[in-house]
């Protein structure tokens, strides 16, 4: 299979276009023009091919598209948006899933193309537990959260076994099924982790169980809370339909002093 660097071809044409029209547009105008030129390039026939970049990929069978993507990555040939679009348009979940077990580049492209596809949620959970890269873990969590109900049992089991507990709490907070085990864990962590009150308050807000209100109201009424904690607690209380109107004095709080001069 011959690989075509369509992005390289476009860059050459773009350089020529810019040199001829440099004085016509301001820098911020070029930011709008270049993407439009790129899309136009995708519908412009390439003489050596006799077809446009979109047509070239559009005519490939599903398996050939995946093979083409892998070869681009293996050989360091830039992957054009036209190749990615051709794959996305066909919703090739089955063909993309194996790439999650491939090279780092293959995994990243597969994640970009699959996004939060429910079929990938289980694999993302496995990757979250097994991979060591924090950026990759965070991407997995973001996708899992969109289908959190599907991994309810796995999340509870991983938390119980001490596997990536902080990430498991974040995922738990997005579960829409009312589950006593999840609620109990979120409350326990909120009450037992005084160093991370804002984070745990946000999890309770996201989970949306009104029974958490009494715990949040008790906490926000404590004398020793910081301004940051107060803000997140108040947000969580209001998110759950509650209200806290007691006047508090944070004039000695370092963060309060930092932001208040800039609020007006």
- The 3D shape can be described as extended
Structural class: mainly alpha
Largest sheet: none
Residues in β-strands, percent: under 5%
Average pLDDT rating: 94
Number of helices: 16
Cα separation of the termini: 62 Å
Compressed to H and E, one letter per element, the order equals HHHHHHHHHHHHHHHH
Radius of gyration: 25 Å
Low-confidence stretches: none
Number of strands: 0
Helix content: 55-70%
Written overview of the protein:
This protein starts with 5 loop residues before the first helix and ends in a 5-residue tail after the last helix. The protein has helices spanning 6-21, 27-42, 53-58, 62-75, 81-90, 93-96, 104-114, 121-130, 134-145, 152-160, 165-172, 180-192, 197-207, 213-220, 227-239, 254-259. The chain is mainly alpha-helical and 264 residues long. It is built from 16 helices and no strands. The mean pLDDT is 94. It is extended, with a radius of gyration of 25 Å. 63% of the residues lie in helices and 0% in strands.
Keywords, please?
264 residues; single chain; mainly alpha; extended
What layout of secondary structure does this protein have?
Blueprint: H1 6-21, H2 27-42, H3 53-58, H4 62-75, H5 81-90, H6 93-96, H7 104-114, H8 121-130, H9 134-145, H10 152-160, H11 165-172, H12 180-192, H13 197-207, H14 213-220, H15 227-239, H16 254-259
Helix pairs in contact: 4-5, 8-9, 9-11, 10-11, 12-13, 13-15, 14-15
């Amino acid at each position: 299979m011959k690989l075509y660097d369509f992005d390289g071809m476009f860059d050459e044409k773009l350089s020529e276009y810019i040199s001829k029209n440099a004085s016509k547009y301001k820098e911020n105008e070029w930011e709008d023009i270049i993407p439009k030129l790129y899309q136009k390039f995708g519908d412009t026939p390439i003489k050596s091919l006799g077809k446009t970049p979109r047509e070239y990929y559009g005519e490939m069978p599903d398996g050939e598209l995946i093979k083409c993507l892998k070869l681009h990555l293996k050989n360091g040939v830039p992957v054009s948006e036209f190749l990615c679009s051709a794959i996305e348009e066909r919703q090739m979940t089955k063909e993309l899933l194996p790439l999650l077990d491939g090279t780092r580049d293959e995994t990243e492209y597969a994640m970009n193309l699959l996004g939060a596809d429910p079929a990938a949620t289980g694999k993302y959970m496995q990757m979250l537990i097994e991979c060591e890269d924090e950026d990759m873990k965070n991407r997995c969590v973001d996708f899992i959260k969109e289908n959190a109900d599907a991994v309810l049992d796995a999340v509870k089991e991983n938390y119980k076994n001490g596997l990536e507990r902080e990430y498991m709490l974040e995922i738990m907070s997005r579960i829409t099924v009312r589950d006593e085990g999840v609620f109990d864990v979120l409350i326990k962590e909120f009450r037992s982790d005084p160093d991370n009150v804002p984070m745990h308050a946000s999890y309770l807000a996201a989970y949306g169980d009104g029974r958490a209100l009494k715990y949040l109201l008790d906490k926000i009424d404590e004398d020793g809370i910081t301004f940051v904690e107060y803000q997140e607690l108040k947000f969580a209380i209001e998110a759950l339909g509650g209200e806290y109107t007691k006047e508090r004095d944070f004039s000695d709080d370092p963060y309060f002093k930092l932001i208040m001069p800039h609020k007006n």
